[in-house]
Amino acid sequence: MALTGRAVLAAALGVLVVGLLLPSLIGLAVVEGALLLGILADLLLAAGVRGLTFDRSGDTAVRLGEPAEVTLTVTNPGTRPLRGRLRDAWPPSTGTATQRHELSIPAGERRRLTITMTPTRRGDRNAHRVTVRSVGPLGLAARQGSHHVPWRVRVLPGFPSRRLLPSKLERLRELDGRSALLTRGAGTEFDTLREYVPGDDAKSIDWRASARNQGVVVRTWRPERDRHILVVLDTGRTSAGRIGDIPRLDAAMDATLLLTAVANHAGDRVDLLAYDRRVRAEVRRAPRNGILPAFVQAMATLEPELVEPDARTLTAEILRRTPRRSLVVLITGLEREAVQEGILPVLPQLAARHEVIVAAVADPAITTMAARRGDATAVYEAAAAERELAERRATAAELRRKNVTVVDAPPGELASALTDTYLALKLAGRL
Amino acid sequence: MSDTALGPTTEQVWRRMRAPLALFALVLIVVSALVLIRGDRHEGRLDPRSTHPQGSKALAQLLRARGVEVHPVRSAAEAARAIRPDSTLVVPFPNLLADAQLRTLAAAGPARTVLVRPGEAALAILAPGVHTAPDAGRRTLQPRCALPAATRAGDADTGGVRFDTDLLPDATGCYLYAGRPTLVLTPPRASHDTVVLGSAGPLVNDRLDDNGNAALALNLLGAHPHLVWYLPGADELPPADDSLWDLLPAGWRWGAAQLAVAAVLLALWRARRLGPVVTEPLPVVVRAAETVEGRARLYRRARARDTAAELLRAAAREQLARVLGADPSEAALIASITARTDHTTAHVHALLYGANPESDEALVTLSDELDALIRQVRTT
Lengths: 431, 380
Hints:
Chain A is an alpha/beta fold.
């Protein structure tokens, strides 16, 4: 049960009755008795809460940063009209603006409530419970009860680099020779023969075909298709670090999604593996037209784990998933100790069989710190930042010596930089 | 009935509440039984019905056994009604009574009035002429007077308040301590006398069998066949001054009670939540730059000017080599810098490879000069 403000108001007005009309114990008893009777009557006559039935519908998935709508239908099967309040409780990170609703349902009818939420974090969000307060006819007291009405909204990675997709696909078309610019020729896979135009590389002239024809004929090449790419997300402790207010892991996901979208268009096959000390998520052989949803679903519930990643077992997992030569994109940290004791010893094993890209999310705050001047505090900060930057550069150089391509970019640029690197490798025929 | 409901049903509530309710009822029954069984045992001090060590039931029983009718009363008016010309009036707490009540008692006209540890106010009305003197402390004293009631009883625990009877030469003072009596019998006036006791010792259950306490008490209180024992009641007690509360009209007081009820309802209304607070596991929040900031603070605390200067110089050298496309070796770098700028070799060498700064100010200056050099090389 619950009392209402009206009961308090009635008790307050009772002060006048007791004070002016009946200043005695009897007066007090009369007012309290009347109040109690009213409250009991309200409790008895309020519509039942226990018998209500609920039904949900609406969005089950939403991209991070976008609003979702869930509809709650409340049916009052009783014989008395229901009047009161309803709270549809969701976890705070769903960003549900209005959890409380005024409710008025005549007997035997139903009402629909819409809950709008803008989640602030990735992952699954479950509805907590629905609490209804049914006020009696006098408005002095109310019955209250809760119902468990399950519903889950999966908050998917935001993919803010989506806006870069058209320009990257445009570049891909240029490579592919399908663009109006006709910059064909790159790649290693034989495409077509066409007549020689001044400016073509003399090395690409097909002499045998030229002999059969009147003019000189050149061979054209196109980038390879059906290559295998394995994106490995490191979900270990370094992925938990926040840049701005976004964990490194989320920036890594954004880059993964852009790369996957472009590679999928380019006709390559992309798989996903999220790993720290065990496999957290994976996508294998997703259908071409459903690859992004598959990636997004797999990544939605990934959270950084506060453990040191195990590079040895990670290598084993990678090798198990890549029977033929592949492009392995390892999105991890470039912290010196983590790299030297983690992936560095096992990289030769990978680089011998595969093309390897190590991508890392850089922190622009450190670059800003390195430029700080003015007083001693600022200069010490600059020195510490320079040390971090120098270590990063040294680590990257060490990795490059192992025949690994390194992409180190701040969160806003990583997706673009990684995709450009992929396109460059494709152009160079290194896949 | 829907199966999504979370709260307990009425039956479940009853089942859950049954045991506590039974326990509560049991406690209530036991307490009531104990109260009923021990009902006659009044806890009060100097109460003729109390068996408490500080009560006076034993004395009352002894008096009854000697044919004295003991009549406890709770208010001054009741006492005035009960008092007969052959009554003894015992006032165990004269200091709790207001002047008006004392006057009512004085006007009632008992044959004898017994006051226990009275203060000046009570003495002024019931035993004029007697005054209090410094306390003798709790002790047993000898009668040393001509009062038969005292001499027959012998030593008694009358040690307590002493009295000054200089203004009343006819009064009999007994049980003297340092020249002042602790028991005073005022001379009879219109067949009315007053006994002033400095201590309640001779009257209480605990000490009745010590020394001559019982005999003294019986002699003093049993002189007349009727005894009125005036123990002020709780509702009569705070008469000292009319408080602000008493001056308020009844309507205000009862209105305040109703206001308190309203306040309780207000608390209940606001305290009831519409469902519980929803919790969720929070993510780890670690800023990626945290270790770098920590290292900067360590440098500063350790005044690691040498390390800081070397780091800044190394960064500057690397940047200069990149800009100039020069060989990063010392000689080549300095040579290409002096070729592009008007700095001397010594100056550039001191800047890029020189001694460590002596103070924080020198470190700041060094960082600014390195920046200036890089800017200069870039623009030329």
